Amino acid sequence: MQAIQDHYPAEFSHCYGCGPANPHGFHLKSYIDGERTHARFTPASMYSGGYPGNVYGGMLASLLDCHGTASAAAFAYRAQSRVMGDGGPPIRFVTGSLKVDYRRPTPLGVELLIEGTLCSLEGRKAVIDLTLSAGGEVCVTGVMVAVQFVAKA
Ligand SMILES: CCCCCCCC/C=C\CCCCCCCC(=O)SCCNC(=O)CCNC(=O)[C@H](O)C(C)(C)COP(=O)(O)OP(=O)(O)OC[C@H]1O[C@@H](n2cnc3c(N)ncnc32)[C@H](O)[C@@H]1OP(=O)(O)O
Questions:
Q1: Where are the transmembrane segments (predicted)?
Q2: Of 29, 40, 50, 55, which residue is 20 to 30 A from 152 by alpha carbon distance?
Q3: For residues 79 and 145, what is the distance between their CA atoms, to the nearest angstrom?
């Protein structure tokens, strides 16, 4: 199955968190499945937080950031009854705001599950609820306001 990010136009595929064309990035891959989006990622040990065994908060915010904008794009396609890669004008979002709540320490060395659900979609603005969990326990929650990107003439 192709990831949402695999449909980003080549010129917009350089994101450090999720751009397929960035050789140094995380290459996060997000998928839509019914009412929910999901991505899985295992941070390398260099992304340690201040005490051993836990993930650095900036890394966790990055994962929500990239998964949130991908989710917004996927939900917007669905709202327009379109499929990604249909040859029509691409629908892409950037992060307007991202609120992150760190609810418990996130363990390093295990696969993390990032999920997104659509809270609202009005005009160019999508609000996405996000969770990040490890071993079935929610460690981080977030709310993103994603804004549809419109190229300036
Ligand atoms: C920025 C780079 C763009 C490159 C091109 C990308 C194309 C996309 C392609 C592939 C995506 C793949 C990449 C994944 C990216 C991973 C996630 C990131 O890291 S993204 C980078 C971090 N984010 C930014 O750098 C945004 C910087 N900010 C802006 O560019 C503008 O402020 C922007 C586009 C967010 C809005 O500016 P306006 O002038 O186009 O539109 P206005 O009229 O201000 O807002 C539209 C609606 O959104 C609301 N809005 C805007 N910002 C908001 C905010 N912070 N909180 C709440 N609402 C906000 C407004 O209230 C308005 O709502 P109402 O229509 O009136 O209901």
A1: none
A2: 29
A3: 17
Can you give the CATH number for the domain in which 121 is found? 3.10.129.10
Q: Taking Cα atoms as reference points, which of 27, 23, 4 lies closest to residue 76? A: 4
ipTM score assigned to the predicted complex: 0.91
15 CB near ligand 1 (under 6 Å): yes
State the residue range of the domain holding 22: 4-148
Reported in sequence order, the residue ranges of 20-111 that DSSP labels E, i.e. its strands, are 30-33, 36-41, 93-102
Most ligand 1 atoms within 8 A of CB, residue of 93, 147, 148 to mutate: 147
Averaged pLDDT in 10-residue chunks for the chain of 153 residues? 92 94 97 97 95 95 98 97 93 97 97 98 98 98 97 76
